[in-house]
Please model this.
Amino acid sequence: MSDTGDYTTQDSFFVPNRYYENYEYVKSQWIAVTSLLFLWALALIARQVATYLTERSQAEATETERQALLTPETRARASGWAPRFDRAADALRNCLMMLVAATILSSIPYPYMCKMQQPLRPGLPIRPEPICGTCLSNGSTLASSILSWVFVAMTLLATILELAVSDMTSAAMARTFTGLVSFPLILTIFILAFKQWGKIHDQEQRCD
Model:
């Protein structure tokens, strides 16, 4: 890139690195994805630990205690945290898949024609006229990066609600509430990516 901010024909071996114009936004979105992946892994580990402890406690129980576990009042208490971590892991997995899809769409390199400054030639005091060449950009923006982290926060809220409630009715209500709030965020990231691609297409037309 030149000192004036224009991309030159020597910025890269093949094409100018225009794609890195929004590099920080793309990196922020993928950090959000990695954070959800880490939380999902922790939830899976916690689920396995809770399941092991539950199975071990039931195996060590006496016959009278096993009969007591069959009653509706004690069945939910005997299950412990295993079902809660199971629902939390499922919620994290679903949210992770949605955020991965939106991030991939936003970070796909998009080639377009752009004006590039030619390097100064020896013996010529005036720089040659800019020429059209192939540049790369993406659909990531500051807004999509912020929305990704808002989605992570809503996913954390959904995970906490899944761990806090024990009955399926309350869990379904909590899942519906967080879904109504989280799904529009992912949809907005998709819309912003397509809108950014439209701006890139307009820049390509002005280059002609």
Notes: The chain has six helices and two strands.
